[in-house]
Specification:
Strand content: 15-25%
Distance between the termini: 10 Å
Order of helices and strands: EHEHHEHEEEEHH
Bound molecules: inosinic acid
Helix content: 25-40%
Number of helices: 6
Structural class: alpha/beta
C-alpha cells in the first residue's frame, strides 16, 4: 500500500493548492483523520513555523506530514508583513479583505512600484526517523492599489505579476501553481518524496 502524506494545515486554500500540485500522491487532510490541532506559530522565520507545524501533526498522526508556512514580504516596508502575514491587521477577527486594505493603507504615499515577494517554506516530517526536511519557494511581483480577480486567496487580488500582466487572483489555479511560491516549494517536495519512494 502507498504511504499516505498528511497535509499539515487547517487552511482550506492551502490544502486545495497542495492537493492540485501533488495530485499524484496519496494525500490526506487533518479533518479526514479526525485531527483537530491549533498550533501556535511562534517561530521567527517561515522555516521555523513550517517545522513546528510538520512536527506537531506528525506526532499527532504518526504519518508523514507536510506543512507550509508562507507570507508576503514588501520591499519598502522592510519585508513586512512577513511571518505576520496572517495576523497583519489589528482589527479583531480581521478577514483577508481587511488585511489587504490595511496593507494598502500602510503603502499610501510610498513611491511605486511596490516590489514584493511571496515566500513559502515547506517542511516534511518523517515519523520513522523524526527527521525534518525543509525547502522553500519564492514568487516575485508587486503590490497594486486596486484589487483584480476573484481567484486564489489572501493577498492574491493585489499581487501583480508583471511578466503575465495579471494578478495571482486573475489566474486559473493551474496557472498560479506554475509560478507561485507554493508551487515551487511543493515541486521540490515532490523530488524528496520520489527519493523516499513514497
Ligand atoms: P500562515 O498560515 O501563517 O502560513 O499564513 C500565511 C498567510 O500569508 C495567509 O493567511 C495569507 O494572508 C498569506 N499568503 C500565503 N500564501 C499566500 C498566497 O498564495 N496567496 C495570497 N496570500 C498568501
Amino acid at each position: 500500500m502507498r504511504q499516505k502524506i498528511l497535509i499539515a494545515t487547517n487552511n482550506l486554500n492551502k490544502i486545495r493548492e497542495i492537493q492540485n500540485i501533488l495530485s499524484d500522491f496519496d494525500l490526506i487532510t487533518p479533518q479526514e483523520l479526525g485531527i483537530d490541532l491549533e498550533i501556535e506559530e511562534n517561530g521567527n522565520t517561515f522555516e521555523e513555523n513550517a517545522e513546528i507545524k510538520a512536527e506537531s501533526f506528525c506526532k499527532a498522526s504518526g504519518i508523514l506530514s507536510l506543512a507550509d508556512d508562507s507570507g508576503l514580504e514588501v520591499e519598502c516596508l522592510g519585508g513586512e508583513p512577513g511571518v505576520h502575514s496572517h495576523r497583519y491587521c489589528p482589527k479583531p477577527d480581521a478577514t483577508d479583505a481587511d488585511r489587504r486594505a490595511f496593507l494598502l493603507e500602510n503603502l499610501k504615499g510610498k513611491p511605486r512600484p511596490w516590489k514584493a515577494r511571496f515566500y513559502c517554506a515547506a517542511a516534511l516530517c518523517d515519523p520513522k526517523s523524526s527527521e525534518i526536511q525543509l525547502v522553500h519557494g519564492i514568487c516575485n511581483g508587486e503590490i497594486i492599489p486596486e484589487e483584480r480577480g476573484n481567484g486564489g486567496f489572501g493577498y492574491d487580488p493585489i499581487f501583480w505579476i508583471p511578466e503575465r500582466g495579471m494578478t495571482l487572483a486573475e489566474m486559473s489555479e493551474n496557472e498560479k501553481n506554475e509560478i507561485s511560491h507554493r508551487g515551487a516549494a511543493m515541486r521540490k517536495i515532490r523530488e524528496i518524496l520520489k527519493k523516499k519512494d513514497v
